[in-house]
Design brief:
Blueprint (H helix, E strand, L loop, with lengths): L1 E6 L17 H5 L5 E4 L1 H4 L4 H9 L6 E5 L2 H4 L11 H11 L1 H5 L3 E7 L8 H14 L4 E4 L11 H10 L3 E6 L19 E6 L4 H4 L7 H4 L7 H17 L2 E6 L7 H11 L16
Parallel strand pairs: 1-2, 1-8, 2-3, 3-4, 4-5, 5-6, 6-7, 7-8
């Protein structure tokens, strides 16, 4: 199955045109898409009540991709707010309980920063992370090109397969070492993840700009670009039972429209979505 969704559910204004819809955005979101990426978990380990609420607001078949807390991936500046890394991982795993019990956890996404390059100590840390996660499905996304340099390309994929990492395939600007190419390889037979970050090469690396985070994902995929991915996704589906696709290009509110357009291009008709709210006219 191919699951198409977006990162988060709060910022996609085109989905919530009716004033009433703003009161329950996740339920409205779930009437369009069968999966979502939870990004609030990156900034703080979420309390159980949040996950429980989100589980209750979505259909039985809905799937959550939960982003790993920033302290787990090395994004955290300064000291982590836990006594140890092991405690941090345990706290995060505990926060996943409602998703797991409801059968709604697609995977946890470990997105590593651009400075996390391919070297021995980082490989060892990835192995430790995977061990700590146990049987919780976990996806791995790199941001440093060295992991896919010719000298490491095959070994990186082989390592991910051996350690049972789900491959997070990226469509993103090709802007040097701080970006990775599209690597159309699956590392597990059950799940693969594809994330669309846009192709705004001019905004991708400008970290010194005041509004860098606002323009980084400012991009709207055109129909031709999306059509390129129709065959790619079908190929991935032939190799893997479940393909998860997430649009992250929402600086200009484009993710929702691109997600719906891809669903139409692939002629996907989802069953068991949440009931759609109807306008009077």
């Amino acid at each position: 199955m191919i699951y198409v969704g977006l990162t988060g559910w709060g910022d996609h204004d085109s989905l919530y045109e009716l004033e009433a819809s703003k009161k329950n955005k996740l339920a409205i979101y779930a009437s369009y898409f069968p999966t979502v990426e939870v990004d609030s978990s990156f900034y703080a380990v979420q309390p159980l009540k949040n996950a429980q609420k989100w589980v209750e607001e979505t259909p039985a078949s809905f799937q959550f991709i939960v982003k790993a807390y920033q302290g787990m991936t090395g994004h955290q500046r300064g000291e982590i707010p836990f006594d140890s890394k092991k405690e941090m991982f345990q706290s995060f795993k505990d926060s996943l309980t409602p998703y797991i019990e409801a059968g709604k956890l697609a995977m946890v996404l470990f997105q590593f920063p651009p400075w996390f390059d391919c070297k021995k100590e980082n490989v060892q840390y990835l192995r430790w992370c995977r061990q700590e996660m146990g049987d919780i499905p976990s996806a791995l996304e790199f941001r440093h090109q060295s992991w896919f340099w010719p000298a490491y390309y095959e070994r990186t994929l082989q390592f991910m397969e051996q350690e049972q990492w789900i491959h997070s395939i990226c469509d993103e600007p090709q802007a040097g070492e701080g970006s990775i190419p599209i690597v159309l390889k699956t590392t597990r037979k059950d799940k693969v993840l594809v994330r669309f970050h846009g192709r705004n090469i001019h905004g991708w690396q400008k970290r010194t700009d005041v509004n860098w985070r606002e323009v980084r994902y400012l991009y709207r995929y055109n129909e031709e670009e999306l059509r390129e991915w129709v065959n790619r996704l079908k190929m991935l589906q032939n190799e893997c039972r479940n393909v998860y696709v997430v649009f992250n290009n929402n600086s200009g509110g484009d993710a929702a429209d691109n997600g719906k357009e891809l669903i139409e291009l692939m002629k996907i008709e989802y069953e068991n979505l949440a009931p759609r709210q109807l306008d009077l006219f």
